[in-house]
Amino acid sequence: MNRDGARPSLWQANRPDYQPSNDWNKETVYDVLIVGGGITGLTTALLLQQEGKKCLVAEAHTLGFGTSGGTTSHLNTLVDATYPTIENNFGKQAAQQVARATAGAIALVESLTKKYQIDAGFSYQSAWLYAQEEQEVSELDEVYEASRRAGLIVEAANSIPVPIPFKKAYQFGGQGQIHASNYLRGLAEAFEKAGGVIVQHCLVQNLKHDDPIRATTTTGDIRARQVVYATHQPPGISIFNFRLAPYRSYATAFTLKDGNYPSGLAYDMKEIYNYFRTQESDGQRYVIAGGFDHKTGHEDNTAHIFSELEAYQRTYFKVDTFAYKWSSQYYESVDGLPYIGSFPGQEGVYVGTGFGGNGVTYGTVTALVLCDMLMGRSSPYEEVFSPARIKPVASFANFVKENADVVSMFIGKRFSYEKITELAELAPGEAKTVKWEGTSLALYKDENSRVYALDPVCPHAKCIVNWNSGEKSWDCPCHGARYAVDGSLLTGPAQTGLTRLEWGELPVS
Ligand code: FES
Asked: Which of 247, 299, 384, 410 could form a disulfide with 455 if both were Cys (CB 3.0 to 4.6 A apart)?
């Protein structure tokens, strides 16, 4: 299974790319086109197909290429936006709805694995939230109180399932976990068995709002009556560019010398929190642990973050081997809750995005909510997650503006290969951006000393990309589009890759 980063995640090992069996009939008008072949898109497609809709999933790369291939695959009612925050922003009733919606999502994952016999090791788990500092204790108590009011099953705990000192802890019932790639494959197979169609390597570029909607893609037009974007940021310029911030999250999967694997999920109370859980894959147990998140494109040395993460984990665990180390992308909404529902201003188009660190959970909530809406029923969660809700976006103003005034002077220029190699004084595997004669260049030298030169201006809204040394990609700090070393598009919202430098006889004048 391929993924949008250079480091393999635990979910990719021994998992070949999915090969769809059903053919796409280009003459067919589908009821629903689902854009994005991750857990969100496939769960939505499966529910709709089960209800009799004729669905097509279009994936720009291969199934699970995006965040589903890099998730840590927790299932939580204890979501990242804490219940005191949700109560504060939206009220007590909304907090209860979030608790019910996320519990419903976990129950749906359980029922789908049972119904379709998906061998993905779904299990209900408890989660322990623990405070290590005095000032975290009062915060933890507030989380406990608000979580109880929201309807979570929670009680005080004397111990936690990880060998980390703590001052106070609570145990939350009703959480869960699942093997991400086994689950994804199971969803895809069930969807195809129900008659659904999956088209891979099919980048949806534009929607023409006729009846039916016509989606222009890299492999031909798809006609559908309704469209669901399950791509995190919907492609192109949209209102979501102003309401979502992209983050990179870091994870490891390691084995232990003492076999003392955590018997549940554990989270500390740091703002950028550390988390731990156990996952079995191909007969081997691993601790999945992570943290050290940061805004995409805002860290100079992302490879170094893995060393810090490792050092932190070695402090507490008797690590045998770090088998996998990877990072992945998620999007935070401005007010902490995801946006699920009708795409503002686009009739017949729906979206699920802004899941924060609760991607599998909120992706499944998306499927539940959108299935109801597209089947003409009302969803009890329609209002609380509505993309049309208005919340202040002031805190995002700077980040959206960041770099946005940089104008590319790259187009039309040609450089000699000699000049580029001179500029690219880099060790193999390194990259940098350079300015030369008023032109910015993004340069990367591969392991065979081949130099790639790109225009660093992101085609989405003209921000300048930054090098992600951890995953060997160029990441945009504004809305999180990511590019491979050859400039090809890894993830949107951009719809094209970075411009590659043409070099030849013509020197720069
Ligand atoms: Fe929006 Fe790059 S992703 S400017």
From this structure: 410
Distance 387 CA to ligand 1 centre (A): 20
Residue 265 confidence class, pLDDT cut points 50, 70, 90: very high
DSSP-derived 3-state class of residue 311: helix
Q: Helix 92-115 and helix 134-150: axis angle, to 10°?
A: 70
Q: Tell the residue number behind the tokens 């108590």, with chain if given.
A: 141
Q: C-alpha angle 216/297/218, rounded to 5°?
A: 15
Query: What amino acid is encoded at 448 in this protein?
Result: N
481 CA from centroid of ligand 1 (Å): 6
- Euclidean distance between CA atoms 188 and 139, whole angstroms: 41
Report the nearest atom of ligand 1 relative to the CA of 493.
Answer: 3
Q: How far is the CA of 147 from the centre of ligand 1 (A)?
A: 36
pLDDT tens for each residue of 105-119: 999 999 999 999 999
CA-CA distance, 64 to 23, in Å (whole number)?
20
Ligand 1 pocket mutation, candidates 331, 463, 475, criterion most atoms within 8 A of CB: 463
User: Which residue, among 294, 248, 297, has the nearest Cα to 271 in the 3D structure?
Assistant: 294
DSSP state of 10: G
Secondary structure (3-state) at 102: helix
* Nearest alpha carbon to residue 82 among 25, 16, 129, 21: 129
Helices (DSSP H) in 317-379: which residue ranges?
Answer: 359-374
Element (H, E) at 303: helix 302-316
462: left (phi over 0), alpha (psi -120 to 50) or beta: left
Q: Quick one: CA torsion of 339, 341, 347, 349, rounded to 10 degrees?
A: 80
Ligand 1 binding pocket (C-beta < 6 A) is: 458, 460-461, 463, 476, 478-481, 493-494
Q: What tens digit of pLDDT does each residue of 332-372 get?
A: 998 999 999 999 989 999 999 999 999 999 999 999 999 99
Centre of ligand 1 from the C-alpha of residue 395, in Å: 18
User: Which residue puts its alpha carbon closest to atom 4 of ligand 1?
Assistant: 461
Domains, in order of start, for the chain: 20-393 (3.50.50.60), 414-491 (2.102.10.10)
How crowded is the C-beta side of 31, counted as CA atoms within 13 Å?
15
476 CA: nearest ligand 1 atom: 2
Give the number of C-alpha atoms closer than 13 A to the C-alpha of residue 44, restricted to the C-beta side: 40
Structure tokens at 283: 């007969």
